[in-house]
Amino acid sequence: MDNLSTFILAGALFIIMLGMGLSLQMADFKRIVLYPKAIGIGLTNQLVFLPLVGFLIAIFIPMQPEIAVGIMILAACPGGPTSNLISFMAKGNLALSVSLTAISSIITIVTIPFIVSFSSEYFMGAGQEVQLNIFQTIVQIFGIVIIPIAIGMFIRRMQPAFAIKMGKPVRIASGVVLALIIIGLVLKERANFGAYFQQAGIAAFLLNVITMFLGYFSAKLFRLSTPSAISISIESGIQNGTLAITIAVIMLQNTSFAIAPAVYSLLMFITGGVMVFFFTRKK
User: Fold this and answer.
1) What's the structural domain count of the chain?
2) Domain that holds residue 215
3) pLDDT digits (tens, 9 = 90+) for 48-90
């Protein structure tokens, strides 16, 4: 991508993470002590099962190496603000959803570089893998994730009414920019997009659905309430696609890696809508 596209992508992620910060308070991080079982199950699904399912999908479904790496980048990412919105609409435990998003966003700063480095070496092969400076990548992810979240939280603390008022416009703006980014990626990779979409669509759909089922039934296995199980399901299956696209395009300098996250970013609204319909109808 050119410099303008890179700037737009970075700006979009900043807006999305700022919007997340506007919705966060320190109490969201303290819930790891108040509700250790629910937080522990949710984080296990996000940090362990999600990358494992992504890896198995990338191994067993025939796909281009670039798509496989894209699936792993996506599986390494935390949940995003969209997961909180879907949890709210599906009558899930919103406090748990927000807490899981916040905590996983911090932890994955460290785990993302290792997962991406491993998957690049495994799927791309010797001589084609992306050489990552782990420490530098951690610092970069910290800068594009934590700093805007911290700014948003500071605004929320100092001007709570303004932060709440700005929540909806920020979500709308981030959604519009994400749509433009996906269109740009499709145009950039239009020569390969047909084949890529077929492979990425199946893999992204399976990653989304399987991790949602795992999240819900693992929560029920440990006797959590239905609202908590809904939130863990959504947090396990709805990832921060914009962060994944940013990592692929800006840090790894490869738009092919961004195809799977782009396709996933479209599919997750469909599966999320099904979750909302099912659980609100059931209630």
Assistant:
1) 1
2) 3-274
3) 999 999 999 999 988 888 899 999 999 999 887 778 778 878 8
